[in-house]
Design brief:
With 294 residues, the protein is an all-beta fold. The protein has one domain (4-291): Neuraminidase (6 Propeller). The protein has 1 helix and 26 strands. The longest helix has 5 residues, at 17-21. It starts with a strand and ends with a strand.
């Protein structure tokens, strides 16, 4: 899950059965990595995520159609102690977070031209950027002086709080071009919470997946067709991914041939492709891409 809180380092359209059968699945591993996770893709199927090296450090990775490489290898993201890439828009701007040598977290946007913009919430600390849309709107988290975590949104260069009323924590995880934000709303301690969709005017709705235990659901991605990717967690802490579209849910999982012990879906793009990561029987994480036939 994208929720890299520093205290704990972490739809598609309703399809007929014939179309579902055409989905192609593949595993994605960064060469030489101990673990690989994919966190996002854009409509061009360009990918971002993070690899973990043999020493246990994470490094942001990107594939803009030429294969997976380290993101910004000679810049502030690539030289950071650790880094993650969480979102990529259609312009190939990448949003994420890195940890500097002093242990502080900073958000960033690595633009398609290679320019890196560091994102630090004014007056805040330990900023992380989780989503960037095609308009350049940005969402993420920061800590205040008391160490409390808060959500933010940046539109047209202006930062404002994105905390939702009644929540003890709000985690925005995805923003589409209409400015709708999908994420995790926690109202009770020691729960996963509810999936939420927040509108640009501040109105929001909460959601629990049918059959899920109370307060065990979150939304992690919303696309421009308003399809939402979510997950609910069962009593044994196993994830169950689903796509919610036009008021209907359908489960999402990987084929049995992957041998996955758990699957963590992360982003759905406008054509309905999904990326994420899964763990094998040996506890190794691998990225995956589920691409609709087209």
């Amino acid at each position: 899950m994208k929720k890299l809180l520093l205290s704990a380092a972490l739809l598609s359209l309703a399809l007929p059965l014939a179309a579902l059968a055409e989905t192609r699945y593949r595993s994605v591993d960064f060469p030489g990595a101990a673990n690989t996770a994919l966190y996002a893709l854009n409509d061009l199927d360009h990918l971002v995520g993070a690899e973990k090296d043999a020493a246990g450090a994470h490094h942001a990775i990107v594939d803009r159609g030429q294969g997976l490489t380290l993101l910004d290898p000679d810049g502030p993201v690539g030289r950071a102690a650790q880094s993650w890439a969480y979102s990529i828009n259609r312009r190939d701007d990448v949003a994420g977070a890195y940890i500097d040598a002093a242990g502080a977290s900073h958000g960033y946007v690595c633009h398609a031209d290679g320019r890196v913009e560091t994102i630090d919430m004014p007056g805040g600390f330990d900023t992380q950027a989780y989503g960037v849309n095609d308009r350049g709107d940005l969402i993420g988290l920061f800590n205040d002086a008391a160490g409390m975590t808060h959500a933010f949104v940046r539109r047209a260069g202006q930062y404002r709080s994105a905390d939702l009323a009644g929540a003890i924590s709000t985690t925005p995880l995805s923003i589409n071009d209409a400015g709708q934000i999908a994420g995790d709303y926690v109202a009770s301690a020691d729960t996963t919470g509810y999936g939420y969709i927040a509108q640009p005017d501040g109105r929001f709705t909460l959601y629990s997946a049918p059959g899920a235990p109370p307060e065990s659901t979150y939304f992690i991605s919303i696309n421009n067709a308003h399809a939402v990717l979510g997950t609910w967690i069962d009593a044994d802490f196993n994830p169950h991914n689903f796509v919610r579209d036009h008021g209907r849910d359908r489960p999402f999982d990987l084929p049995a041939r992957f041998g996955a012990t758990s699957v963590w879906a992360q982003t759905i793009n406008d054509p309905g492709d999904i990326v994420g990561y899964y763990f094998d029987a040996g506890g190794v994480a691998h990225g995956f891409l589920a691409r609709r036939g087209r």
